[in-house]
Structures are given as C-alpha cells and as structure tokens.
Amino acid sequence: MGDTFAPYNFIPFSERKMQKPDKLKAFNRYEDGTYTGNIEYTIENFTELHIGSGKKDINNVDEFFRDGYGNIAIPGSTIRGMLRTNAEILSFSYPEFIDDDTYLYRTFADNCINVKEEYSKEMNATNDNGMRIADGVKAGYIYWKDEKHLEIQPVKEFGDSGTTYFRIHENELRRANCLNNNEYMYLEEVETFEFSKKEEYKNKIELCYGDLEKIEELKKEIAEESLKEYAKDYVPKVLKKWNNEKKKAENLNTEYKPYHHKGIHFNLEGCTPQIDKDGKYIGTLINSSYIDGKTHHFLVSADEDVDKEPIQIPLDLALSFLQDFNNRSKLLGKNKEFYNLPMDGNNYLIGKKHKKLFFYKLTDERLVGFGPTPYFRIFYKNSVMSCLTQKESTPIYDYVKSMFGYVCADNNQDEKAKTEHYKSRINITNCICTRGGDKLKNCEAILLGPHGTSFQLYLNQIGKKVKVSGYNGLTTFNSDDAKLRGYKFYWKRENIGKISDEILSKREKFKNIFTKFEAIQPKAEFTGKIYFENLTKDELGLLICALKLNENEQQTIGKGKPYGYGAIEVKKIKLNYFYKSEEDNSIKEYFLNPEGIEANTLEVTYSKENEMIEDALNEFRNAYKDKLKRDFDIDFDKDEIIQLYQNVHKRESRLSYDRVYMEISKKEFRNRNPLPCANEFFNEAGEFIEPVRIYPNSEHTKQKMRNNNIQNK
C-alpha cells in the first residue's frame, strides 16, 4: 500500500515548553525598552481569492467580505488568525486554538482492523443474544434539562426479553400494513434470510432435552453461525442483486424518508415481535436513511422507565456530538434533523416536551456513545488535545500569549485562575482592497473533505503501514501513542484545481456539497495596518517574522484552499514606531517606509529605499533570533521546524498535480493509506519535489522521468 494524496499537510508541533522570562507588560503606561506603533503592509493575491462574509446573494452565491462602508476587504480577524498561527510556529508556542473535540466513529468494514475491532468490541456486536442486535445497547428519551445538561431517560424493557428494542424485517411490516407509504424503503417484498442449518440445530437441541447448559451453548453457537452466514452469504447476495441499478431503481421507494411511527401494538413469540393491533406491548417503529442491503426497521419501547435515574451526558461529549453532526450535515442532506439532538438551528430545545427517541450504551458506567439508531457512532478514547505532545501547564506565558493575549478557560482551575486573562497588545485593521475590486467572478467548488476523524491523515503515522498482520498497524484516536501531526497548511498550486466532468455530470446528486462563491481575480491589492503597543524588540521581531519571514514567501488564506485559491504575498511593509529608551526615559520616534522618510533620530542613511526597509526589518528579526539563542539555546535558522516552515512558504513550493482530494476514488480513503510527511516534499537543499510514489502523473514526475530517459540514452 502506498501513501495517499491530500492538498494539505502539516508542520509538526514543537515539544518544547517556551516560557518567556519577561513579565507581562502593563497597559497604563509606556514601559522602558518597548516599542509602540504600527506596521503598514500590502497584500497581493496570486490566485483567485474569496473571504466569506456570511451572506449569500439572490443566486445563493457566497459574497466576498465587505466592511461597513461597502469596501471589499480582508477582515482583520483573518489576518490575525494567520499571524497568530505563524507566530506560534515560529516561537514554538503552545497551540492555543485547537478544538478539543472527542471524535466519533462507526465502522463495520474498515481496512484498518484496529478500529473495526474496537468498534465491534465496544458495541459487543456478537449476536450472543440471538437477536442480531448489539448487546447492552438500550433506548431512551434524550432531552435538554437546561443549556448545560443533556439527559437520557431510559425506557422500559419488553417483558423479560432484556431488551428495549427489536429488529423487524420490512416484509413483516408490509404484511401487517402498519406503516405509511413513505415509511417503506421498497415498493414490494424483498428476499429474506433463512439460516441454512436451522433444522440441523433444532434436532441437536431436541436431543439435549433437559440439559439446560448444553442447550444454552447450542443457542450461542446458532447465534454465531447464523450471523456469519448472514454476513458472508446473504448480504453479498442481496448487494450483488441490488448493484444492478435497473432492478434497484424498480423496487426502491423514492418517497421514503427516515421516520418515527408511534403506537404500534405487538406480541412476543420468544424474542420475535409479531405485529398485532390487539397486542400486549406498545412500541415505536423507527428507521434511518436507506443504504444498500438494508432490510430491517427497529421496534422500540415507548414507555419511560420512571424507576431509573436519567443518564447524565457530560457536556463536552454533548458538544462533541453536535460538532460531529454539523461536520456531517451536508452529507446527511434534507433528512439531517432525524440525526440531531433536540435543537432549533443552534438553539437548544429545553425540556422533556422536546424529547427524542435515542439509543445509548453504558459500559461500567462509562458512556460509550449515543445516537438515533442502535448502531450509533461512538466516542474515541482520546480527545484531540490529549494527542498533543506539548502539554500546557498553567501559568506559562509564551511569546504568543504575552503578545496576542489569552483568557483562561480551564474549568478545572480555581475561581481566581478561571477569570485570569490578559489583553492583546496587537490590534489589526481590515485590509481594504485598493486595486482589482471590480474584478470579481463567481467560482464553484466542492468544499468538503476528510475531517480530523481521518486518523491516517491527522495523526502521526511515521513507520506505520496499513497491511501489517492483517491490516493492523495504524495509529487511531484509541491508540496510547496517538500524536497529532501538527499545524495544517494547504499547498499552493500551479493552477486552480478543477471539478471533474464525472462529478459535474452528477450535480443534482451532489448539490448539497457544491458551493458557489464570489472571488476576486489575481493581482488585486489590499492595504492594512497592524497596531502594536509595548512590545519588546524581540517581540516586534517575531511579529515581523510572522507577517513575512523571507522575501520569496507566499501563504494561503480564505475559502477554496484545497483547489489552490487564496495564494497571497505580503509586500510594501512600512514600519512606524515610538521607542521608550531605558537609558534616559525619553521617547524616540522612527518612521521607516518605502519613500525614505526618516525621523530626526534616525542617523543611518540608505542608498536605496528597499534596502533601508529590509535592513530595518531584519534588525528586529535578528533581535528575536538572538533572544532565542541567548535564552533558549535555539538556533532559529537551523531548527527543523523553522526550516520546514520556510520551505513550505516558498513561492516555488507549488503542486503541479491537478487532482482535488474530494475526487479521488473512494477506495483510496477506504484503504486508509497514510499521508506522507511534509519534509518528504523537499530535498536536502530545500527545493520542492513531488514524490513519485504519490504523484505518478504530476508534471514534476513526468519531467523527472524525461530527464532520466535522456541520461540513460
């Protein structure tokens, strides 16, 4: 198995703990040895650029951001995010703004056997109960007690069956005529499963009359064998039949949608429900979206078990569930609310009157997971932040916290620590478009791709392979050695990636994931300012490095980065500041700009304007580098993380390969091929290459092969 392709990669997180020796600066005075002023700069885009406004026009096109005066602009928050991330990398600071989610997963046929077996083990999907339902999964009503408390009230079990729900074949429901027309998945009956050894085991049980222990062993054996036969023979046969699109289309009910149908009466014959309008039990029939091979619905107990205490769902898990739902909402389409918690948009629906029938599982009082169907997505063992190798200890004031500010949001801290915060000493204006604002065009892309749950991409897989000991080997969010790869960045591209004709031909099918947006064409210019207050010389040097470290540097911002949109370059930097001297407590004023304007205290003259600017900026950059060497023994220019950062941001570090990752064959993701490390894209001289094994059809690879052929001749 090879590596996979993605339009992004990662710069590793630093494992250092960088506590600044300087105390935090005050805001009520100019402190000795500090700089206060602003940086003026220009941004030029080299590919189409879109920064969203959160608004759509009458044609459902995402509009470009405009300020309060109607000017096309890049919002200050976008620049701030770029600067903060760059500063974190360049100062080895703690990665503050990583969402500490606990991801969810569900899998039955994953090429990474680790995660497949972990899911099966957690859900105990062994058929030991003989009902082909997950052991220990129960049903209940989920509701918001208030905005911070989500609860599940269990429902009663059916008699002595030990379960709160059953599977029931659609054929049985059709014969009972108990559903509405749009609640059947098919237009006519479908083939049912019959265990081929049913009579054989029936005879074995009769021969064991009175031997209860032996009979129980045989029942367990029947359950295991029938499940194997169901999975190995029946399901593939049905899928093969339904893979004939014509036959499938003829029997599929196009009006079907997920449903809850209350008030279903039935009786039990052993553990088999029989629909009967005069039946002893009452339940609710439910079913989720149709998938190939699906033939069963679920009959669920409707009565709350008031003798049982409600199950408290930790708020962080509730929020992780909502985040997971939001990430999948486009794929869920028009039926997405079936899968959601009791919500009205982003608002919680408080109280039992908004309760929904859900399923859950507890193992030794640990909540494995919950969801709208019995085979729900469950929580990984490790949260995202627990996979970060640099652990935060409070209080540590690194460069980024001391410059950009922070708010302590750790609920485990005492009350004083909870309220601790420090205001930013950096303020950033919107970057106003001064050229090219009239050159807008509508673009289209599929902006949906692998999420953090794609552990083969987002977790460190160095030395790991997919096929080791039967597909084992990959690190998942359940692994003890799970480690985040680092800061995600998008590769720049030679050309904007195109949506394939195959996908465009299925536009109606994929309409939920198509996005139209307004983009400004290349060579537009934006101007903005960064205001700073009471920064030390090394801090100002870091800020300048984060804005632009090297001359041949480009970055990516905005929407559509996977396609190559948003490549920008920072230009025409002007530095203006006041400096409060430590020696004589005086304030000195400096203006350094391309026009060569000099303050009265600037004694050095320069023959060229650009040389003056760059020399002045480098003085601050070098002050920061010297500080790292002196206080932390870090050689900035030789550090591996810094070298990778510089290589990634070079103008020439561009993919020539034109694939867009949403259009790679499904097999490539299903195979769980790991993502290569970013440093594999550069040779020892720091020159960009595209690994042949990953990009066999790229221009770089073709040229390399042509050169080899010439040499061989």
UniProtKB/TrEMBL annotation:
GO biological process, alphabetically ordered: defense response to virus
Residues annotated as domain CRISPR type III-associated protein: 43-148
Cited InterPro entries: CRISPR-assoc_RAMP_BGP1436, CRISPR_Csm3_endoribonuclease, RAMP_III_fam
Entry keywords, A to Z: Antiviral defense
Matching Pfam families: RAMPs (PF03787)
This protein's record includes keyword Cell membrane: no
PANTHER family: CRISPR SYSTEM CMS ENDORIBONUCLEASE CSM3
Protein name: TIGR03986 family CRISPR-associated RAMP protein
